[in-house]
Write a structure and sequence with these properties.
The chain has 359 residues and is an alpha/beta fold. The protein has 2 domains: 169 residues, Rossmann fold (3-Layer(aba) Sandwich); 167 residues, 3-Layer(aba) Sandwich (Rossmann fold). Helix content is 40%, strand content 15%. The protein is built from 12 helices and 12 strands. The strands form 2 sheets. It has a 6-stranded parallel beta sheet with strand order 2-1-3-4-5-6, with helices on both faces. Strands 9-8-7-10-11-12 form a 6-stranded parallel beta sheet, sandwiched between helices. Helix 7 links the parallel strand 8 and strand 9. Helix 6 crosses helix 10.
């Protein structure tokens, strides 16, 4: 089967959504399918970052390739010419919805919702990563029977929990430093922890929201926190796993998450998770069992629950055990790839018989 996999953006991103997409490209290729990727690095350099140039390049490339299936992700701004074509040419389309249309308000939000509905309504199926995302897509007017939930996977890496016996308590917060991730609330809460001994680690990209990064760093440089907060920047997956091993708590205060791979990885590593009660994270974290949930932006609530987790070793150990047991049931990338291949083949109406199973 020939598949056009379109995930063109205005730059070469390294987000969780793109990581998922490339994992699914590998799964489809391992299943024997021919994939043509339309991505920032696969288009002519002269049109990279050009909305008009990229849009018509996609149209020409898809028409030339003549795919059996079109998979579209993270490309709405470039998809208008192809979307118009789909009104006349009945290519089967599988949309991947990573909630890119969140984060706006008022009239802009309503316009973006209509825009996204226009695209998704042309798809035969819509992939989503959680029940929360599925609910958001249904709220656009997309029929439930079009939607398929397949959660992202993660590598169930080897653990060394003995590292976690060392003090001081280490609080880890993973992700791009930006308003949606709300590291500012976390840093402010840490400033309310008094004379407790702890370290706060905030690895993540700092290039996208520079004004916000400066505000977070200024807060971290207060008299109460000086020397207790570090910003390692963008780190490798291996370095991140080492941080999971050496940390005691994960703090994820995002105002919304489509899934929350960092939360799943931290639970696997046995870290209690302190998270905002928003998006899909409550599907992973049960308040009082493997972590705590607080209202988004609640500085005092964040500080109160951090105090509990820092002061009570027995509580952390109990939550750690529950966290790891819960994560044992989560999908690996193998599981996700297997289910995604099935979805792609069903969307295309493919009846391909493979000599070898997906690996």
């Amino acid at each position: 089967m020939k598949i056009s996999f379109v995930m063109l953006g205005l730059k070469d991103h390294s987000t969780g959504g793109y990581h998922f997409n490339f994992k699914m490209v590998d799964a489809l290729r391992n299943a024997g399918h021919d994939i043509d990727i339309v991505h920032f690095t696969t288009i002519p350099q002269r049109i990279r970052g050009s909305r008009a140039g990229g849009s018509f390049y996609i149209l020409r490339r898809v028409l030339k390739y003549k795919p059996d299936l079109i998979v579209i992700s993270k490309s709405y701004v470039f998809m208008i010419p192809l979307r118009l074509l789909l009104s006349f040419r009945k290519y089967p389309v599988l949309y991947l919805d990573h909630l890119e249309w969140h984060g706006s308000t008022g009239l802009i939000h309503r316009i973006r919702r209509l825009f996204v509905y226009w695209f998704l309504s042309s798809g035969k199926r819509v992939w989503v990563n959680s029940r929360s995302t599925a609910t958001d897509v249904v709220s656009l007017g997309i029929p439930e029977e079009k939607i398929c939930i397949i959660p992202p996977g993660f590598h169930k890496f080897d653990l060394n929990p003995a590292n976690r016996r060392s003090k001081p308590v280490k609080i880890l917060s993973v992700g791009t430093i930006c308003p949606r991730k709300d590291q500012l609330t976390l840093v402010k809460a840490c400033g309310m922890l008094g004379n407790r001994e702890f370290q706060l680690l905030i690895p993540g990209d700092e290039t996208t929201h520079r004004d916000y990064v400066e505000a977070v760093r200024r807060e971290a440089d207060s008299d109460q926190l000086r020397g207790k907060v570090s910003f390692p920047g963008h780190i490798s997956q291996d370095d991140l796993r080492d941080m999971y091993d050496q940390s005691h708590i994960l703090a994820n205060l995002s105002h919304w998450e489509g899934y929350g791979i960092a939360v799943a990885e931290a639970l696997w590593a046995g870290l209690p998770v302190l998270a905002a009660d928003a998006g899909s994270v409550p599907e992973l974290v049960t308040h009082g069992e493997n972590g705590f949930l607080i209202p988004p932006g609640d500085v005092e609530g964040c500080a109160d629950h951090l105090k509990k987790l820092i002061d009570d070793d027995t509580l952390r150990d109990r939550m750690s055990e529950t966290a790891h047991k819960r994560a044992e049931k989560y999908f690996t990338w193998y599981d996700t790839g297997r289910e995604f291949v099935k979805l792609a083949e069903e969307t295309a109406g493919s009846k391909i018989r493979r000599d070898q199973p997906y690996q």
